[in-house]
User: What shape does this take?
Amino acid sequence: MNVTHLECANCHKEHGANVLQNLCVECGKPLLVRYDLVKAAATLTKESLKIRAANLWRYAEVLPVENAENVVSFGEGFTPLLKTDRIAATLPIKLNLYIKDESVNPTQSFKARGMSAAVSMAKELGVKKVAAPSAGNAAGALAAYAARAGIETFLFMPKDTPRANIIECEQTGANVTLVDGLITDCGKIVAERKDAEGWFDMSTLKEPYRAEGKKTMGYELAEQFRWTLPDVILYPTGGGTGLIGMWKAFDEMEAMGWIDGKRPRMVSVQSIGCAPIVKAFHDGEAFAPEFPNAHTVASGLRVPKAIGDFIILDALRKSNGTAIAVSDEDLIAAVKEIGAAEGLFCAPEGAACLPALRVMIEQDLVRENENVVIFNTGAGVKYLECF
Assistant: This one.
């Protein structure tokens, strides 16, 4: 294992890497995994990747599991990067537009990446019970990976979570509790009960390892673009772990000499009904206050308060990116538009990136012939109530 320590993203206090950790013991903010990247780069090379399995564990030297026997995997990762010329042709300027399609992951969303890493580490560290709040896809992924690892799972989900997610969790053995409220209300229940119940809290960014699985999206983009990075990445943002993970991956790759210092302009996409990151970004805030009366049909975007808000906002600003909110009507319309043009049945969250891109073009935030990547984070079939 090349992990050296865990570091608080806020106050930078170091924590041990070989024991269970949730948040920073000093300031209560998320912990990030740090590696000996010189050691990692000795065996993790561009050449070595040519003969490795096409899944996220191809990057094992920069993932936290020490003993390969503890890896819990369904073959997640290395998802397609699809050039979408028909959609691009509808735009007012010429772009090289791509969709990174995370719906082909196990459990049909990008959440499989994070849960593969996090559950693997939970297994390695001897966890017997895990708990998490979820608006849908994270719960489905946690239930599946924990079942495969032999770990008991307790999930708390809003009552109006898409039915497919609820059934998925029940059928993969999780203990599911539906809550009359938002994901933040579910999170409070986990926090209040975890010590008495003996649960390890697997909430977004309240443990260090989900972000490590998600960061592999950044490694894959660099590899699929032949060791350059795109000019713009539009990412649907609820808890924001994927965006945070990719930003971390870019720094790691630069440290290993794989890429230069050029970064994509990172764009956080949210719904008008729940846009805490968008509001904080445009208000010049370092942290995002809880968004009042949060509502959107895109359940993965219905996160009124993200614990990693300051990390997301920092990445947007350092990359000269932005944050854009779109209406539910526009994001639902975009699902059909992308489906009819490209044959992809996107999750509403991923589809939200298309109207956001049109806003960027109107505001002259995208230039002719740039490489633009939209992340489709899940499968539309899991959101049938929306249609």
About this structure: Residues 183-197 form the longest helix (15 residues). The longest strand covers residues 152-158. The mean pLDDT is 97. Residues 81-109+210-386 form a domain with the Rossmann fold fold (CATH 3.40.50.1100).
